[in-house]
Amino acid sequence: MKKQIAILGSTGSIGTQALQVIEEHPDLYEVYALTANNKVEKLIEQARKFQPEAVVIANEDKYQQLKDALADLPIKVYAGAEALCEIVESGPVNIVLTAMVGYAGLKPTMNAIMAGKTIALANKETLVVAGELITELAQQYRTPILPVDSEHSAIFQCLEMNNPISKVILTASGGPFRTFSMEQLATVTKEQALKHPNWSMGAKITIDSASMMNKGFEVIEAKWLFGVKPEQIEVVVHPQSVIHSMVEYKDGAVKAQLGVPDMRLPIQYAFSYPKRESLSGERLDFMKCNTLTFEAPDTKRFRNLAFAYEAMNRGGNMACILNAANEVVVAAFLKDQISFLGMSDVIEKTMNKVSFISNPTYQDYVETDAIARRIAAEFVINSGF
Q1: ∠ CA 310-315-320 to the nearest 5 degrees?
Q2: Cα separation of 317 and 367, whole Å?
Q3: C-alpha torsion sign, points 272, 94, 136, 172
Q4: Can you tell me the mean pLDDT for 79-94?
Q5: If residue 313 lies in a helix (H) or strand (E), which one and from where to where?
Q6: Please, are residues 299 and 305 in contact by the beta-carbon 8 Å criterion?
């Protein structure tokens, strides 16, 4: 039986690469549902090619365009946030790939967990915002969460049955500004920030990588995925992006997962786990990668990583505040409304202003997200950029 896969965010970088994996293994995987937020033309193109059972466009204004374009095909067409949550519950679906960007991925992921679907998690914000809630739900409904982030997939691949780990080591490329001084960082542009040295990703995650917020989110995500304490999570800057992450065991042994920077590998591993399937593409050539370097991250120049550790240590709704503020400032930076360093200033102010809740409910997360966004937006306006 082919695994039926629902892709939340099929028009983004992860979603399109997931479709390449499915296309390479038509005997193993089949697209059940495709969803997008705004990119209706891309969604139409994908739907016509892969012929899913259903498509969903989150932006309801694009519904008619989508429906008209697929009228000659037996594809169910839906729109809106609620439809996203409902499509993941569909009976035939085996795996839900959560590749949506940001906080929007939280509710549909919750619905998929409660429907007993295997989660291939590419939406790190889900665990950042509500890690405790999500892990409790996954345990309650016995739903596996398989990491798709390259770093967490690497750790997952290095784990050993019944051997507890000493620590996990997340590698970071350092982004395009790894060697920049504070003076240089003060004047960087979005065009510079969108040029990642190693990975091809969407705009939001590329900016997060440049500011090291992405690595901060991955630290929080690792806490929930692997049940480790904050002090057991280390970040090492590794500019070559050959080692995707490592695990240290109590005897001092360190296991690492290496490979070329290709997101199709962790996507496919989440789909095929525990088996490995063939995958086309470049292979790691050790004769060419004869220099692997490592350095400590600089949390004075890249304060977002420190904010993430602070949010993780405080717990409660603090990481939800962190994420909401970050989504606001990244959107503002991409519109030239705030400076690169100004993003961290707004995040810090927002974390200090929004009320802390030590044991949040789902509704608390919803309200915290809305309040933090409003406050962060006010700080952006007053940033004077």
Answers
A1: 85
A2: 10
A3: positive
A4: 96
A5: helix 303-314
A6: yes
Q: Give pTM, 2 decimals.
A: 0.93
CB within 8 Å of 292: residues ≥ 6 apart: 238, 240, 242, 243
Residues 267-324 pLDDT 10s? 999 999 999 999 999 999 999 888 999 999 999 999 999 999 999 999 999 999 999 9
CB 17 within 8 A of CB 39: no
Q: How far apart are CA 243 and CA 259, in angstroms?
A: 7
CA 181 to chain centre: 28
- Tokens encoding 13: 């970088």
Query: pLDDT value at position 292?
Result: 95
User: What is the chain's mean pLDDT, rounded?
Assistant: 95
Query: Can you list the positions of beta strands (E) in the chain?
Result: 3-8, 29-36, 54-57, 76-79, 95-98, 118-121, 145-147, 165-172, 233-237, 243-249, 254-258
Q: Is the dihedral angle over the CA atoms 352, 355, 360, 365 positive or is it negative?
A: negative
Between CA 244 and CA 160 the distance in angstroms is: 17
Phi, psi of 208 (to 5 degrees): -60, -35
Q: Which of 124, 140, 130 is nearest to 359 (CA)?
A: 130
pLDDT score at 140: 98
Contact of 297 with 48, CB cutoff 8 Å:
no
Token pair for 273: 């786990």
